[in-house]
Amino acid sequence: MEHIATLDPSKIGRANEITQVTIGAGAVSLEEFVAVSRYGAKLVLSQEYLERVTKSRALVEKFLAENRAIYGLTTGFGDNVRKVIPQEEAVQLQLNILRSHAASVGKPLSAECVRANWLMQLLSLGRGYSGIRPEMLSLIVDCLNEGVVPYAPAEGSIQSLSVEANINLVLIGEGRAWYKGELLSGREALERAGLKPLMPACYEQSPANRTTL
Questions:
Q1: What is the DSSP letter of 116?
Q2: 83, HSE (Cβ side, Cα atoms, 13 Å)
Q3: Is the pTM of this model over 0.85?
Q4: Which residues in 124-154 are b (16+ Cβ under 10 Å) and which e?
Q5: CA-to-CA distance for 11 and 206, rounded, in angstroms?
Q6: Model confidence over 21-52: pLDDT tens digits?
Q7: For residue 2, which phi and psi values (nearest 5 degrees)?
Q8: Pure H helices in the chain
Q9: Which residues touch 44 (CB under 8 Å, ≥6 apart)?
């Protein structure tokens, strides 16, 4: 699945006329990307997209059941690669990695940039190689559709991992986010939008595994 299709210059000025974008087998055009990130077009995940992600997650669950030694899944990260992580501690590992990486500073990204970042994550994760649960991706879609905008300081290190970590903290009810012009805790922003935070599963929330989340 390609991220973005060839640009059609004749349509770029009409991105604000697109009201819904479906992520599926085909490419998302630049016009559609702008429609979502800038103009708030609603997002829909196709059945094919969800099936691909579900199949990938099933493989992760299979590896977990078999106690395979897989980097970042059943082992620690970096120098801790030789340390086996018990399954009962796997979720705490994901939380620790996410929280420790949420260290960007400075002025926050604009709402458009945050929305674009989330959309890029959806496009990448939807390829079916990450092992993330479809529920987590659906929560990102719900946040985008309901106007929840995480507060994410723009200056960080390790490429954009620290910025993305701040964005994704909101999914677990932490961090901060704007909702209807008010800056709230991540949990309260979700609640006001009628959404619930979702705790990460094994190998799901690590910024080090950024082609997941």
A1: H
A2: 9
A3: no
A4: bbbebebbbbbebbbbbbbbbbbbbbbbbbb
A5: 37
A6: 999 878 899 999 999 999 999 999 999 999 99
A7: -80, 150
A8: 30-37, 47-65, 90-101, 111-125, 134-146, 161-169, 186-192
A9: 20, 21, 22, 23, 141
Lowest mean pLDDT among 92-101, 147-156, 173-182: 92-101
Give the span between the Cα atoms of 52 and 67, in whole angstroms.
23
- Name the active-site residue from 71, 151, 179, 203: 71
Rounded to 5°, the CA angle 28-3-55 comes to 100
Q: How many CB atoms lie within 10 A of CB 120?
A: 17
Q: What is the residue-wise DSSP string for 170-193?
A: GGGT-SEEEETTEEEEHHHHHHHT
Q: Dihedral angle at the C-alpha atoms of 210, 158, 88, 70, nearest 10 degrees?
A: 60
Catalytic residue check, 179: no
Give CA–CA dist 51/168, Å, rounded: 23
| Encoded tokens for 126 | 């939807």
pLDDT band at 212 (very low <50, low <70, confident <90, very high): very low
Listed residue (207, 177, 36) closest to 112, CA to CA: 36
Rg of the chain on CA atoms, in Å:
17
pLDDT of 162 over the 70 cut? yes
- Encoding tokens for residue 210? 């950024």
